[in-house]
Amino acid sequence: MSALSQRAGMSLLLFVSMMILGCGKSTPPVTEKRDSQTGPVTIAGSTSILPLIEACIGDFRKEFPTWHDVSPKLTNQPTLIETVGGGSGFGISSVKSGLVQIGMVARPLTEADRRELKECDIQLVGIDAVVLAAREDNPLFASNADVTLEQLRGLLLGKWKTYREMNPALPDKPIKIVCRDEGAGTTGLVESLVLQDKQIEACASVMESEGALVQELATDRYAMGCTTLREAGLSPKVSAFAIDGIAPTNNDVANGKYPLLQPLYLVTKKPVAPAVEAFTSFVMNREQETIEAAGFVPVRNPPASTPSPASESGTE
């Protein structure tokens, strides 16, 4: 690993460590000044988008080994791009405070978010969906793989403690709701669209990533949880419920019929550094096939019910 890469990684690790320890309530001191023309570019936020962005980074570095390959105005330094997860809320706060240059956000932006990001550019990268998922031998899924929004709300608020309470024909086994942490985009979307801004009350286990949540669902037939359609599709043991009779198929996500859509954003603080702009432009203009191959709906044909990039400009 080069000295520059080591310094970049240590600097980002320090930033993230300070946020985790609670020091991120105010902007921490910057220990290393970043050159806006050489990188390294730093990215943090949603674990839903993270695998996609890492794939885009791989494509970007193959095509442009140095920043000078991107533009003769940039210097001949390697195209170093550092990433870390942490959730959508972490991505927003990290960009605003200057801890990182790009935030990954996987949830609808609230009015409070827009106010917080008024000095930022916000780009809609793609669309995912949030699904209620479980194993196919889960008692509820096996009996009826279609729930209403009202039933989903009841599950997340703890209306039923056992499957039998929900349906007398089901076994007298506890319902185990598995959740993401509070800063996750899936949590924010569910609390906004399903729970009408109430918090999830029935959470038995909290997971720090979508992958960990799906793994928990795959190992426990009595567990259910909300995750992304893409992540659920990566496990052969986990399936998604239909909501109000609409299954989360690619077509019904693309046409906006499925009710729980999850927009995927990249957020950058203005003025945008040349290296940062080069990478985000590459993602938006060159990586739409990669976005589609990753299981997301690309922005060239976003659902009508999804905010367009223009409507999410970051200004009031």
From TrEMBL:
Coiled coil ranges: none
The protein, known as: Phosphate-binding protein PstS
Domain called PBP: residue spans: 35-286
Signal peptide: 1-22
Source superkingdom: Bacteria
Keywords carried by this UniProt record: Signal
